[in-house]
Amino acid sequence: MKLSSMNYLFRQGMKNIWTNRIMSVASFCILVVSLLLVGFMMLFVANINQFVGGIENKNEVIIYLEDVDDVQIAGMENELKAMDNVSSVSFFSKDEALEEMKKGMGSEADDLFGYLDDNPLPDAFRIRVDDIDKISGTLMAINKLDGIDSIKSPTDFINILTGLKRFIGVISAVVLAALIVVSLVIISNASRASVDIRKREIAIMKLVGATNTFIKVPFFVEGMFIGILAGVAASVITALGYSELVKVLSQDMTFWSIMSINGFIPMQSVIWPLAFGYLVVGTVIGALGTVMSTSKYLKV
Amino acid sequence: MVELRNVSVTYSNGVDALHDVTLKINDGEFAFVVGKSGAGKSTLIKLLLKEISPNSGKITVNGFDLEKLRKSKAHKLRRTIGFVFQDFKLINTMNVYDNVAFVLRSIDAPLKYIRNRVPYVISLVGLKDRVRSYPNELSGGEQQRVALARALVNDPQLIIADEPTGNLDPNTSVEIIELLKAINNNGHDGNA
Known about the structure:
The complex is a heterodimer. The longest helix of chain A is centred in the middle third of the chain and has 43 residues. The radius of gyration of chain A is 31 Å and the shape is elongated. Helix content of chain A is about 75%, strand content about 10%. Chain A is α+β, with helices and mostly antiparallel strands. Chain A has a four-stranded antiparallel beta sheet. The longest helix of chain B is centred in the C-terminal third of the chain and has 16 residues. In chain B, the strands form two sheets. A four-stranded antiparallel beta sheet of chain B has the order 2-1-4-5, covered by helices on one side. Chain B has two domains: about 80 residues, Rossmann fold; about 110 residues, 3-Layer(aba) Sandwich (Rossmann fold). By secondary structure, chain B is α/β, with parallel strands linked by helices. Classes of the chains: A alpha+beta, B alpha/beta. Chains A and B meet through helix 1 and helix 8 of A and helix 2 and helix 3 of B.
């Protein structure tokens, strides 16, 4: 196809947006709303994951030891480090534990601990795990080591959290899929309506000998351009709306403010990938939607 | 050139539109097809444009064997035919110039050729002053002239006119028929 023809078809597509401006505005609005629904759903899920992930990071397991000597401690440390799923091991001696306790108690501590000739606190290891889902296996392995008095781990809480995370994952996947399907159906119907208005035009073009491609390109340009505009609009609305939402939710003493202890995902770190996604999805759906609905009338 | 041999068309609702039709229209001929409504005139035109295919028989139009021509290649046949319909079939969102130019644009004609050819053809049908008008701003006779200009612009081997004067008053009808005759004298088939 010649450049002058491409130029003509491009201008024709832009002109069509204006000629069919009511349908153009309708498709634009539907596309923006669909993109926003999907976008905010994804932001919601990302924030929940960040929240749960933040709690998971506090996955400290404390292993209290029996009265063991330095050699045994060094041996245990090596064994712990060698375990799968253990990300960090730090030794916390009974003296350090006592210091920390004194610090926590303030001035009364000297009175209280002054009477002790011996430190009653045990030595301990503090470890972190890589994958919280596998923590029960790790705990079992630790239990088999010699010289362990007791283990303190947040197992119950973790079980609830991992369950919650899985639940949210499934629910959000289902809702996202449903949203995407619904938007696709709405948009292809909207553009079908706008193509329907022009079916007489398409039939005439076919009769005077235009190829299907020649007829489709302006529709393609039109859909693509509306898609890009919708992507930009959705990005702007998300940028403004999300930062405002975070501000409001962080002020209030609600469930959300508990979440925000961990911090909401800041707008700056999500807006660019999200805007990129909006543009790509908007353009593809806009272009495909119109082209798919044109095909029905190209069989003259 | 148009040739039909033993062509029959039966629609899916059982209507027997054409039955064993054989005819031949030679180059340069000006042929009329007349008959009551329902006689199959429109069916004949749809066959020639390959909008529909016959149940049996063989059709040749401008050297195309329509049986072998795939539907997706129908535009190649249609580019050799100019048509004029009773209801004009103009694109209402395009002005006179663009309606006529569309035919050339769709075959990727050079811009320079389009710019020369389109005004020339429009002046042939006497609409030089209405180039920027839209179809709904024109009278029926003027709209049919635009359709005629569009039919001519690609210099087709065959012009098909389906009741081209059906929507026009007698005086305008005579003008259109005179135009068609003049065009035929310049070397096109006619079929009204």
